[in-house]
Amino acid sequence: MADFTPQYLLFTLILLGTFSANHGCNQIARKSLLSLPFTTSSPPLNWSSIDCCLWDGISCDLKGQVTHIWLPSKGLRGSISSVLGNVSRLSHLNLSNNSLSGPLPTRFFSSWNQLRVLDLSNNHLAGDISSLFSSNGWPASIQIVDISKNDFNGMIQSLFLRRAWNLTELNVSHNGFTGHIPSSLCINSPSVRLLDFSFNNHSGQIPTGLGRCSKLEVFRAGLNYYLSGQLPHDIYNATELTEISLPFSNLSGPINSDIVNLTKLTMLELYSNQFSGKLPLNIGKLSKLKRLLLQMNYLTGSLPQSLTNCTNLIELNLRFNLFCGYISTLNFSSLQQLTMLDLGGNEFTGKFPASLYSCKSLKAIRLAQNRLEGQIMPEVLQLKLLQYLSLGVNKLTDLTEAIKVLSGCKSLNIVILPLNFQHEAMPSDDSMVGSFGFENLRVLGLGGCQLTGTLPSWLSKLKKLEVLDLSFNRITGSIPGWLSTLPRLFYLDLSNNLISSEFPKELCDLPALVLKPTAPPVEQSYSKFPIFVSKNGTSYQYLTYLSSMPPAIYIGNNSLSGNVPIEIGHLLQLHVLDLSQNSFSGNIPCQISELTNLERLDLSANKFSGEIPASLTSLHFLSWLSVANNDLNGMIPSGTQLQSFDRSAYEGNPGLCGKPLPLECANIVSQNRDKEIQEEKHGHGNLGFHVSLVLGFITGFWGVCGALVFNKYWRVAYFQFLDNLKYSLLDLGHVWTGNELSKF
Predict the structure, then answer these.
(1) Bigger pLDDT: 6 vs 83
(2) Which positions, given as ranges, span the membrane (predicted)?
(3) What is the pTM of this model?
(4) Mean pLDDT, rounded, of the chain
(5) φ/ψ of residue 405, rounded to 5
(6) Residue 634 and residue 473: Cα distance in Å, rounded?
(7) 301-311 burial, b if ≥16 CB within 10 A, otherwise e?
(8) Alpha carbon distances (Å) from 443 to 376, 438, 464, 607
(9) Which of 298, 428, 622, 676 is most buried by a 10 A CB count?
């Protein structure tokens, strides 16, 4: 054994040397990587080794050629340099989810003949994509291209893809591409499985030929507002499709009955287009559908009975169409997976479908803006997971029973029932909501019901309530101080009622409007359903989060009076304050200027007097203001954003002057001075009159009385005259009194 040891060691060293030579990284590639103008956030990349094949995110082949640069989500900043083209054997490049910016080098992809995967998504890269290719376009090796969520522009031409025979995924979404969607996709790349052109500026029609993509599973081209025309007929031949997503475009025409050939579809998103006609009668053949989103189109007719054969449906949204029919006849009980149902904004009639009570997975129901009648039945308590219920703008009755029933739904977060229960009494029985009733309620909307009575005390039990809308009713009485005991209430709308008394100081202590929230709100799945709010003729839609609603107090158009308390300055989180069309008086509290988050302030149509507080100029976020139709005077604070509002914000205050009003303050001063002069002149004339009167009185008194004092005969004759006169007046008075009494 000892005789072979030297030879064995020599062989080992040679083998290790050969192995090291074969596995050390290519020096050209190493220098190119080191010269990349990247910076990284903490922690930095570990690129300290001599062998770049051992670096973070770098892989090599057996010959030391760099084949993979895989650096997603590494906090990279800077630009992509042309030296990257020196890494000629690159097959995988992933720089996604970083902060890279700027244009890509010209003919960036030309030197990579073996590139299979390119992922530059979610950066800030920009420029015209047409300058990045040679005349041959993508290399034949390319399989996956994802350049989504950048700022690229230009046209995606068909020649870019003419050699992309092995392409399986193409994602160019969330950019600024224009022009037509390439028409030869499926000819050049018949194996493609995913095509995503959404969130761009593509125009024209969706090209024909998609039916040739025999392996196409996902087709997305939504949010291209200039896409028009009908769905190409041959798209129904792409029978491997599992997802079609084309929302927010300008597509039109009917949904062809051949769509039922796509039996593997799990998602069909065609919302916010101009599709018309009826749903295919046999749509139930799409039994694998999980999400059917057709809202905001012009679809008509009744819902086909076969729809309930789509037993895998999780979300069904047909909101804002022209559907009609007696909805109670539709049997929803087979939809046991259904969690979200939105049929709002149609013309359905009948009662709340009893079969929905069998859909135990339901979390959100919207049937608002239809023609439904009847009552909310106790069976709704079977929906243990129900969080969101919107039945507004129907013809429902018996609010008292509805509150009793719904208060037992322990998962309910949002209840929106406006424009129902017309002219009923506000439920006032405090015991109707128990200590655990509405225990998770965050939103209660009962506006426009013309409800009578006062604000019920059971509302004080809703300790998780954040939004309360009781506008456009006939509520009387005062604003109760116990509202300040609701720790999360940040949106209060009591406008357009008959509420009287004063602005309660307790309202200035609403915790959610005084203190900044310490933790972000926990949003639920129902937040996919938007909440609509109409104010001053404008509709607002709060789509994603309840927390996107502005902290607000609306108490306009009531009969409130008195001074606005100076404690109003406590509401530091307030964004909207509407006190309009009441009878508030006194000065505008300067403490309003402490509401530095205020965006909208309406004090119009009251009886405020005095000057506009100069401190209001500190409200830098104020975008809407009205103090019109009060009794304000003086100059509008100048040199501030208060001059940027329309003159209508100040009209109806004769004493106000300065921009934007046409009346200059110099004219007001001159008019006031003239008035003072006139008053002074009038005052001097009165003084002369009073002096003359006094002097005349003195002269007359001593001229007559003095003579009576010093002359005895004159004195006796004078008092005899007074006695005779007294009896004459008594007789006259008796006659006058008798005559006047006879008239009554």
Answers:
(1) 83
(2) 687-710
(3) 0.83
(4) 85
(5) -70, -50
(6) 37
(7) eebbebbbbbe
(8) 18, 10, 9, 33
(9) 622
CA-CA distances (angstroms) from residue 550 to 496, 547, 577, 645?
19, 8, 11, 21
Contact call for residues 207 and 181 (beta carbons, < 8 A): yes
pLDDT of residue 108: 78
Q: Which two tokens stand for residue 442?
A: 């965050």
What are the tokens at 91? 């097959």
pLDDT in tens, 555-603: 999 999 999 999 999 999 999 999 999 999 999 999 999 999 999 999 9
Residues 307-311 have a mean pLDDT of 96
Residue type, 58: I
Burial 628-643 (b: 16+ CB within 10 A, else e): bbbebbbbbbeeeebe
Cβ atoms 555, 578 nearer than 8 A: yes
H or E stretch covering 583: strand 583-587
Q: Fill in the DSSP letter of residue 639.
A: S
Q: Which residues contact 373 (CB under 8 A, 6 or more apart)?
A: 349, 350, 351, 394, 395, 396, 397
Do residues 239 and 217 make contact, with C-beta atoms less than 8 angstroms apart?
no
Residue type, 29: A
Q: Using only the alpha carbons of the chain, give its radius of gyration.
A: 41
DSSP 232: P
Residues making up the chain, counted from first to last:
744
Beta pairing, strands 531-535 & 561-562: unpaired
Residue carrying structure tokens 């009578």: 452
| Residues with Cβ within 8 Å of residue 256, at least 6 apart in sequence | 231, 233, 236, 280
Query: Mean pLDDT over residues 493-497, rounded?
Result: 97
How many angstroms separate the CA atoms of 274 and 404, rounded?
42
DSSP per-residue letters across 55-94: STTEEE-TTS-EEEEE-TTS--EE---GGGGG-TT--EEE
Look up tokens 């590494």; give the residue: 74
**pLDDT value at residue 133:** 62
For the cut 80, the answer to whether the pLDDT of residue 697 exceeds it is no
Q: Which two tokens stand for residue 164?
A: 């992309």
Higher-confidence residue of 533 and 711: namely 533
The H or E element spanning position 229 is: strand 226-229
Beta bridge partners of 415: 389, 444
Handedness of CA 701, 706, 712, 714 (dihedral sign): negative
Cβ–Cβ under 8 Å, residues 177 and 157 = no
Greatest alpha-carbon pair distance for the chain in Å reads 179
Q: Which residues of 254-271 are buried (b: 16+ CB within 10 A; e: fewer)?
A: ebeeebbbbeebbbbbbb
The sign of the CA dihedral 485, 486, 488, 490 is negative
Terminal-to-terminal C-alpha distance of the chain: 152
Cα–Cα distance measured from residue 300 to residue 701, given in angstroms and rounded to the nearest whole number = 101
